[in-house]
Design brief:
Elements lengths: L1 H27 L7 H10 L4 H8 L7 H15 L23 H14 L8 H9 L5 H8 L4 H12 L4
């Protein structure tokens, strides 16, 4: 019982760190709310290292992800006829009140909570990677494809990294 409570508290700290870093990544790029792509960047930074190891399992460099995400924004602008370099992002100020994320970020957090119900072991960055890699649409999914990553292989690698150790 005490171990379960301790684990829940640790998971809450991890989720807080994940949300805080995702929000930081979004604001640094001039976006007021984080999307799934910002949560993916935050997961790679978690001290457990499982997200980085999942990328390594498929031979990918997670440090290439920020540039791939930025390219997705440039490509989206080009598709609507705006062919210009993206201006340097002006950091946004923190928003007061309830924590908010873009729909992709909110969906990710809800899916993460659902997937973790009753699961043993701590919340890890690899859990986030597994969910995002399994998502077929959005900036994060397109960025992973731009890195020529097989989403099924990355999701599988992330699940292996997040499997409880015996």
């Amino acid at each position: 019982m005490l171990q379960h409570i301790r684990q829940r508290l640790n998971d809450m700290r991890t989720l807080h760190r994940l949300c805080t870093r995702a929000e930081h990544h979004a604001r640094a790029r001039g976006q007021p709310q984080p999307g799934a792509e910002h949560f993916l960047l935050a997961a790679i930074e978690l001290p457990d290292g499982s997200a980085r190891r999942a990328f390594a399992r498929v031979g990918a460099n997670p440090d290439a992800l920020p540039a791939a995400i930025e390219q997705q924004y440039r490509d989206a602008l080009a598709q609507i006829g705006i062919d210009a370099e993206m201006p340097p992002a002006a950091p946004c100020a923190p928003q007061a009140g309830i924590y908010r994320a873009q729909p992709s970020g909110e969906g990710l957090i809800q899916a993460l909570a659902e997937a973790r119900k009753g699961q043993p072991g701590p919340l890890l960055g690899a859990h986030v990677v597994a969910l995002i890699a399994a998502t077929p649409q959005g900036v994060a999914a397109r960025a992973l494809r731009a890195l020529r990553l097989d989403p099924h292989a990355l999701s599988h690698a992330a699940r292996q990294e997040s499997a409880p150790r015996a």
